[in-house]
Design goal:
It contains 11 helices and 7 strands. It is of the alpha+beta class. The strands form 2 sheets. It has a 5-stranded mixed beta sheet with strand order 2-1-5-3-4. A two-stranded antiparallel sheet has the order 6-7. A hairpin with a 2-residue loop joins strand 3 and strand 4. Bound molecules: iron/sulfur cluster (2 copies) and FE2/S2 (inorganic) cluster.
Length: about 280
């Protein structure tokens, strides 16, 4: 048996907007996205909504339901108090395109700056990595982070950019901290991204409030399993005397190797190194 619900849906574009009221029927078992589709079909054909799978897997339908960041296709109407008006607004952290659709391009720019997986060289004798036995623990640790569906709800809720947009160019955000963690914790990866995390990706801005973890629809322990271990690695890189000595020796060797190269090759290599350290474009 359906119920009549008052939905207050934000409508507008980059120049401004406001909530618009829609009295609509919600049927048993429906989610917020179903009700938005009914509004679109019956009352506002031009209502802009982004969605794809309606199964909590594509990460497209993110919005704020009664002020809480949610996937609208996973937010059940039965969880909400339908006696009160229900507000639906776009993610606040990202620029508005139209109605509930936001421009999440910022996230793709951050993604481009993550230095790629860099496997260690093949074993010179066997020409393969077959000698290495990966532990189940290693697999589970990185697989948790691979569950991310890029809904960007964690990016949306993080106060470092939500309340201070000026931080955005220097802050990767929780979604990308777990991408860094995934690479850093991979047993075959050789890149060291800890300095970059500290100096260019704003890991230090995160004060472990765990808001990102609370909104993640995939239940990823972003803070406990990703951000905190990364912070520990950053401290090790910066203050552990052995690590500092190792880094200094590596730096000296790299400089020597570069100095021995012809000028054009040297410049090309330098450009490659800057890219691997996350310098934009
Ligand atoms: S724990 Fe850190 S990254 Fe997550 S929301 Fe809080 S400040 Fe942002
Ligand atoms: S970590 Fe969770 S909340 Fe953040 S983008 Fe991935 S799935 Fe969404
Ligand atoms: S429509 Fe794909 S996650 Fe909601």
């Amino acid at each position: 048996m359906g119920e009549s619900v008052l939905m207050k849906v934000w409508r507008g574009d980059a120049s401004g907007g406001d909530f618009q009221d829609f009295r609509v029927q919600a049927e048993e078992g429906e989610v917020v996205l179903d009700v938005l589709h009914r509004i679109q079909a019956e009352q506002a054909n031009d209502l802009a909504i982004r969605w794809n799978c309606k199964a909590g897997k594509c990460g497209s339908c993110s919005a704020e339901v009664n002020g809480h960041p949610r996937l609208t296709c996973m937010a059940r109407m039965s969880e909400l108090d339908v006696a009160e008006p229900i507000t639906i607004s776009p993610m606040r952290t990202f620029p508005i395109v139209k109605d509930l659709v936001t421009d999440v391009a910022f996230n793709y720019e951050v993604a481009r700056r993550v230095p790629a997986f860099s496997p260690r060289p093949k074993d010179p004798v066997t020409e393969s990595d077959g000698r290495y036995r990966m532990q189940q623990m290693d697999i589970e640790r990185v697989q948790e982070f691979r569950k991310c569906i890029e809904c960007f709800l964690c990016q949306n809720v993080c106060h470092v950019i939500r309340d201070h947009p000026d931080n955005a160019p220097h802050f990767a955000g929780p979604r990308f901290f777990i991408r860094y963690a995934e690479l850093e914790m991979h047993p075959l990866d050789t890149n060291d991204r800890t300095r970059m995390l500290q100096e260019k990706m704003g890991l230090g801005y995160c004060n472990i409030t765990k808001c990102c973890t609370e909104v993640c629809p995939e239940g990823i322990h972003i803070t406990d399993n990703g951000i905190i271990p990364l912070k520990e690695r950053v401290i090790t890189t910066k203050y552990d005397p052995y690590t500092r000595l190792r880094d200094r020796m590596r730096e000296r060797r790299r400089k020597r190797e570069l100095d021995d190269l012809p000028e054009r090759t040297r410049r090309r290599k330098l450009r490659g190194l800057n890219a691997s350290e996350g310098e934009p474009g």
